[in-house]
Design goal:
Elements lengths: L7 H9 L10 E2 L2 E2 L2 E2 L1 E2 L8 E2 L2 H15 L14 H13 L6 E3 L3 H12 L8 E5 L4 H13 L4 H4 E4 L10 H11 L3 E7 L11 H11 L2 E5 L18 E4 L14 E4 L19 H4 L22 H17 L1 H20 L6 E3 L9 E5 L3 H10 L2 E2 L1 E3 L3 E4 L8 H21 L1
Parallel strand pairs: 4-15, 7-8, 7-9, 9-10, 10-11
Antiparallel strand pairs: 1-5, 2-3, 6-12, 11-12, 13-14, 14-17, 16-17
Helix pairs in contact: 1-13, 2-10, 3-10, 4-5, 7-8, 11-13
The chain binds pyridoxal-5'-phosphate.
The site of pyridoxal-5'-phosphate (PLP) has 12 residues, from helix 4 and helix 5.
């Protein structure tokens, strides 16, 4: 194992030893005034793979040449396109391919999963979520509960950060699950918190949920393509994610959902549409819904092939690079980031990201935060500012280098030194 030094030479040596560095070139990096910017916003919108254009053009060409026949014609027929996505996604999420469906958008899929998995019975009605969950999750859960005729104030119970704003620990989540016990119908949490970057130990949360008899589901928007997941073996009931962050599927990309195979043939309630019908029966236009028998039976409408093409371009890079290789690089990048962060005197900001995390790190500023953010941005670092006082920064193993991370911390140190001295 290499010992780190806080020097550009060390960063360059790390890059030199990195077998995945070449994938940086598989992406379009933003440019301003002829200068490449350093992109640390994979937690928001992943970069565009260079192959995306070709992938879309291939579909446009099929449409041009064969019209609707493209759904059925050749090895690249559109009916089979779904499988090109489910196989790599299964590897990334630790699922079986038939437990994955690629459909809709994230918030829509949360609603569809609520239809299937929120099954209040007797006193078992409550849903446990984080009070600092992404707002769309809160809206989806509360509005769904209202739709069921219940009062969200009585049904939705929240896990809060402590008085200093420190996120709940995994232990506190598990304790809350046991505390609500027989009153709990569902646990629905973000795998990685969008604001703090905190990663929960999803396996232990799934186990605790099962112990008390609650259904467990995760919003993996910030986890998929970012951290190791093992949804099938962890016995998670369902999960959903968007594909525009670490999966680089493009703005408004086609989202994904995992539904554990144990539910596929059960009597579960499900909203249905013709695209969920078994493929060889779909075009027989029968009166009755004949389920595809797997996660795709949750799909309602015709597959948006152009969106599939965008996601496919990115997933091919994941497959080529190897998911486990990417996770190893990410681990090293986390160590590098933690090492460089520790070298900055910590009197201007507080790291609010716990040790267990993926790519993202969030720094909370007591003062001058917006000014630090602006100066970093002006120096070419694309990071983001979250009101009221947080900078989020996410170096991604697929397209960031150790040198870029070094430059970022070097600039951050210079800027914070200057602002502290000038105060
Ligand atoms: C954790 C989380 N949940 C839900 C959403 C909403 O996703 P969508 O707009 O794709 O429905 C986002 C969007 O960034 C998110 O980060």
């Amino acid at each position: 194992m290499m010992t780190f030094a806080n020097t550009l030479d060390c960063a360059a040596a790390l890059d030199q030893q990195d077998p995945l560095l070449k994938y940086r070139d598989a992406f379009m990096h933003p440019i301003e005034n002829n200068r490449e910017r350093t992109y640390f916003l994979g937690n928001s919108l992943g970069l565009q793979p260079k192959k995306t254009m070709d992938s879309i053009q291939q579909v446009l060409k099929q449409w041009q040449q064969d019209g609707v026949e493209s759904f059925f014609k050749g090895d690249d027929n559109w009916l089979a396109y779904h499988r090109k996505l489910t196989n790599p996604l299964a590897a990334i999420t630790g699922a079986l391919p038939h437990e994955i469906t690629v459909m809709n958008q994230l918030t829509v899929n949360i609603h569809l999963m609520m239809v299937s998995f929120y099954r209040p019975e007797g006193r078992r009605k409550k849903i446990l979520i984080e009070s600092k969950a992404f707002p769309s999750d809160q809206y989806a859960v509360s509005s769904f509960v209202r739709h069921m005729g219940f009062n969200p104030d009585e049904i939705v119970v929240e896990i809060n950060p402590d008085a200093e704003g420190v996120p709940p620990t995994n232990r506190q989540v598990i304790d809350a699950i046991h505390q609500y016990g027989n009153d709990l119908a569902m646990v629905f949490l973000g795998g990685v918190n969008y604001y703090t970057g905190q990663l929960f130990d999803l396996h232990s949360i799934a186990t605790a949920s099962r112990e008390v008899g609650a259904v467990v589901g995760f919003d993996l928007a910030h986890a998929v393509g970012n951290v190791k997941l093992n949804l099938h073996d962890w016995d998670v009931d369902f999960a959903c994610w968007c594909s525009y962050k670490y999966l680089n599927g493009g703005p408004g990309a086609i989202a994904g959902a995992f539904i554990h195979e144990k539910h596929h043939l059960s009597e579960i309630n499900r909203l249905e549409g013709w695209w969920g019908v078994k493929q060889d029966e779909r075009f027989l236009m029968k009166r009755n819904f004949i389920s595809s028998g797997d996660a795709t039976s949750w799909q309602l409408s015709t597959s948006p092939i152009l969106l599939f093409a965008c996601l496919h371009a990115s997933l091919q890079i994941f497959e080529d690079a190897g998911w486990n290789n990417l996770l190893s690089k990410q681990q090293k990048m986390i160590e590098w980031t933690d090492f460089l962060l520790a070298s900055i005197p910590n009197n201007v900001f507080k790291r609010i990201t716990p040790q267990l995390r993926g790519c993202q790190i969030s720094l909370q500023f007591q003062k001058n935060g917006k000014e630090v953010y602006k100066r970093l941005f002006d120096q070419g670092f694309m990071i983001d500012w979250r009101e009221p006082d947080v900078i989020r920064f996410a170096p991604v193993p697929l397209y960031n280098s150790y040198t870029e991370i070094w430059h970022f911390f070097n600039s951050l140190r210079e800027i914070t030194n200057e602002l502290t001295l000038n105060d």
